[in-house]
């Protein structure tokens, strides 16, 4: 019997394991050690090309300000009490980058940049500035997104916090010096770093102590995943005087009920890509999961780890949220779901693309009717490329959906508390819009 068959036989009982897990203690994943090993093997095969996507070079941050952006974000140490629980992957200290503005208003951005999947890429990451603070500059600028100093940025006068990504854990990890190091002898502290930032703001600015305080949380890609995962945590930590708003950019990993095209060839079709990724990653990171989502998972007899990923988590986010997401997330499609390497030259079919869009748009649209969820969904095939506030790189204007830009949507959200639902309705040639992007501008050089 070949190893694929073995895997199939091992995973079959898993379906039943999940179905009957309702009675198991809520925080215990209902998997045996050998089932977890098989999930790990699959997850690594499935996700490995996600760790090294070329769009993770973060062109958005620079060390030189342009004209009119003269005030840098300054490297700032974490509070002493958090020093032991917030290290970067390699154990070096974490730092915030802060630009002080209005002390009653804070905009915080979670940087993206892939994630740690397997030993090889995690260990490599720990030697770079995406896993170590060793070479972090004293000052930075981030001028095309929510921390831009452009006069038309509605968050222009907020206190700005740039969270540089060195945990590889999509901002969900909870490793501490006492509990860690974790997997591969590395530290996964992304969630703790968010907690440290809130504490720092509360202590140094007395943030959250006066009524009419505002907090805007956003992030792109891995930072978008982190935005979803930390949104309600931020709101509950900051307390009732602070109006919290969240906006994940390209953070929907994955659309509901996604199955990678080649998964069945591996003999694994009993779990979705969403579930495989969630189980493996949240275990590796010791992920802090949304409290109401985890409780709902227990009630449904699902592993709580399912809450790591966007389609399972989003229905449980109660803080007002503006989702910016393209119809076709190119990173997911090219590097994970239809990856040629994994598929022996098979193509990502029209059916697959049209299902992918239907799942992305369908779930978000239906949720926006029943919870405080705004949408900015362009008919584009790209990852984060067009999902930022300012186009600082090209001649073309910004991506427009239903007459509105993402900047317009953020402005209405920030200034009026209004959540708009913008879902592209452009027309493709010959009805191709079910699987062919039809927005006129899908690249704003957002990084
Ligand atoms: C996927 O990753 C492998 C190495 O892990 C690499 O050889 C291959 O070129 C990658 N494929 C793509 C499409 O990036
Ligand atoms: C920021 O503050 C300046 C100076 O007080 C003011 O002119 C401007 O309108 C403010 N911008 C926003 C977006 O609030
Ligand atoms: C996912 O699939 C299950 C089973 O087919 C279905 O009950 C559920 O509604 C689907 N979820 C979404 C969000 O489409």
Automatic annotation (TrEMBL):
GO terms of molecular function: hydrolase activity
Signal sequence segment: 1-21
Keywords: Signal
Pfam family, one: PAE
Name of the molecule in the record: Pectin acetylesterase
């Amino acid at each position: 019997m070949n190893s694929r068959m073995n895997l199939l036989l091992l995973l079959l009982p898993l379906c039943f394991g999940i179905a009957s897990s309702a009675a198991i203690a809520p925080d215990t994943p209902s998997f045996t050690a050998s089932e977890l090993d098989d999930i790990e093997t699959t997850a690594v095969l499935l996700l490995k090309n996600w760790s090294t996507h070329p769009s993770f070079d973060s062109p958005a941050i620079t060390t030189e300000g342009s004209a009119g952006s003269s005030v840098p974000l300054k490297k700032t140490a974490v509070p002493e009490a958090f020093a032991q629980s917030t290290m970067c992957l390699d154990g070096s200290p974490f730092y915030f980058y802060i630009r002080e503005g209005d002390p009653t208003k804070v905009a915080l951005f979670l940087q993206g940049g892939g994630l740690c999947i397997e030993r090889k890429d995690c260990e490599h990451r720990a030697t770079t500035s995406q896993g170590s603070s060793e070479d972090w500059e004293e000052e930075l600028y981030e001028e095309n997104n929510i921390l831009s100093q452009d006069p038309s940025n509605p968050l222009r006068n907020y206190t700005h916090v740039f969270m540089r990504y060195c945990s590889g854990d999509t901002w969900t990890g909870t490793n501490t010096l006492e509990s860690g190091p974790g997997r591969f002898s590395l530290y996964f502290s992304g969630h703790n770093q968010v907690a440290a930032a809130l504490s720092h703001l509360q202590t140094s600015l007395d943030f959250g102590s006066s009524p009419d305080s505002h907090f805007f949380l956003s992030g792109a890609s891995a930072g978008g995943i982190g935005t979803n995962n930390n949104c309600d945590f931020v709101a509950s930590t900051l307390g009732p005087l602070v109006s919290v708003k969240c906006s994940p950019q390209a953070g929907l990993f994955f659309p509901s009920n996604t199955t990678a095209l080649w998964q069945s060839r591996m003999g694994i079709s009993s779990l979705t890509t969403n579930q495989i990724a969630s189980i493996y990653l949240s275990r590796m990171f010791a992920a802090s999961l949304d409290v109401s989502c985890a409780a709902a998972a227990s009630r449904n007899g699902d592993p709580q780890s399912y809450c790591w990923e966007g389609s399972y988590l989003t229905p449980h986010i109660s803080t007002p949220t503006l989702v910016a997401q393209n119809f076709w997330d190119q990173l997911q499609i090219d590097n994970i779901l239809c990856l040629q390497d994994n598929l022996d030259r098979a193509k990502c079919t029209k059916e697959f693309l049209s299902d992918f869009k239907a799942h992305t748009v369908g779930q978000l649209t239906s949720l926006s009717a029943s919870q405080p969820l705004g949408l900015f969904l362009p008919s584009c095939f790209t990852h984060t490329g067009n999902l930022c506030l300012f186009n600082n790189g090209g001649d073309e204007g910004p991506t427009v959906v239903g007459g509105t830009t993402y900047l317009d949507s953020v402005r209405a959200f920030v200034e009026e508390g209004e959540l708009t639902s913008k879902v592209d309705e452009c027309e493709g040639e010959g009805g191709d819009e079910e699987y062919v992007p039809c927005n006129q501008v899908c690249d704003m050089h957002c990084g």
